[in-house]
Amino acid sequence: DTQMTQSPSALSAFVGDRVTITCRASQTITKWLAWYQLKPGKAPKLLIYEASMLKTGVPSRFSGSGYGTEFTLTISSLQPDDFATYYCQQYHNYWTFGQGTKVEI
Amino acid sequence: EVQLVQSGEALVQPGGSLRLSCEASGFTLRGYAMYWVRQAPGKGLEFVSCINGNGGTTYYGESVKGRFIISRDDSDNILFLQMGSLRSEDMAVYYCARGESLLSPFDFWGQGTLVTVSS
Q: Residue B111: is its pLDDT beyond 90?
């Protein structure tokens, strides 16, 4: 199984801050990594796929980078709507998720 | 508009069975891979099961193999998850999700169904 290790598990930030979340795979997944946003009571949203591709309609303040085993999600200027929990997911070798990062005010 | 509308909250006793549904609109299930993912209280996301576009291939997470069955009704465009021999550790919010294929991310998700397993 490919394990996904996400860090930090939680962070506190202010509106306008630059936020970076890291995800590490236990073996290479090349570019097959996605990032999702979860809010309580709402359907999860796909933000980034293939490590760096922004899904249509997702604000450009979200970006992704990385290849192989190391990946990052960056929010360039945190907005009030961005306070949520973020998960990375690999889809190279079946499907596994990171533990999540809760972004709090 | 793509929508996935899931069945409502459910309470089931340990050892019992339950069928979840996920009604799709705005696209045809036959053309896509469909997934079930769950989130137990205070935990992260866990892959549960999936079925490919032609319905010929299914996968299950280790924790549900032999107890859960994924299926779909192509005429009504509804995805199902038949859950059996339910345990307390199966208590979670269950999400259905869509992928272009079994090698794709999950581009649309349902709103989730809370399943409580308790006597």
A: yes
